[in-house]
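Researcher: Structure for this, please.
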Amino acid sequence: MAEKKKGIVKADLTRACIHTALIAFVIICTASLALANGPSITVTPSNFTPGDLVTLNGTEFKANENITLTTTVTCWKPVVDGQCECDMEDFEILPGVRFDLSVREVKDHVSVYIKKGIWLPIGPGTPGFTFVYNAATKTSNVSSVKIPTGGRYSIDVIGDAVDGAKNCTMTTTATLIIQADGSGAFSQVFDTTGIPICCMRVTATGETSDPCTVDLQLCLKGDASKDGHVNAYDCCCIARYCCEIPGYDNCTICCTSADVDGTSGVTGDDARYLARYLVGLEDELH
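Model: Predicted structure, token format:
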């Protein structure tokens, strides 16, 4: 009888050990998965057009750590008469933001004009700005110090395109440092007014946390030229695209925005339909 009780006790102990081990295993796995997930960022709303207010939310960063937010906007512009011109109108820069840009496929330094109230030319030698030209990659780079006062700015960038180039690529980067709260979360609102139709990437990097990235695609119906506005120039861009004029291709033209007449594909009918819409003969873009 004693031997039987011993066997029962041993069996109970074995089951208890297995049960404890399973609990420990689940706890370890859960913790590992939580750590594996790491920091994340989300954007609300997920679909938006230039001019909307967008909220960037971050979670799972270290408590109270500084986080570097980097917003990169890439757009393509056609070469016209040997020059490429990229502009952003009335866009918001927050106080303390560092603003940099680069333009590929140009012969030398680009000419930069910045407006806050009045237009001011910016060039090599302008205090607070650094111009570097990379002849190997045919890229003009412009870096700024932190902008002390925020507000609405416009920028116009003009460069002489290299021989044979059909379009130029301009990349603008805005860098801002914020702080996470005690739970490792943050929320940052930014205004998309003036941001051209483009590829947009936002990266959040903590002091000790791994970086995380979200890619966004802005779209405005009718804005074939991707400059953030719908006007007669978009009709011209659609027509030039349909005529296969060099520089007006899938890089410089947003086909999703250009297809406005309700039929699939971008044709000359879209240019005509958009023109009719602009003068009030059509009620909406499809």
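Researcher: Any notable elements?
Model: Residues 232-278 form one domain. The two ends are 87 Å apart (CA to CA).
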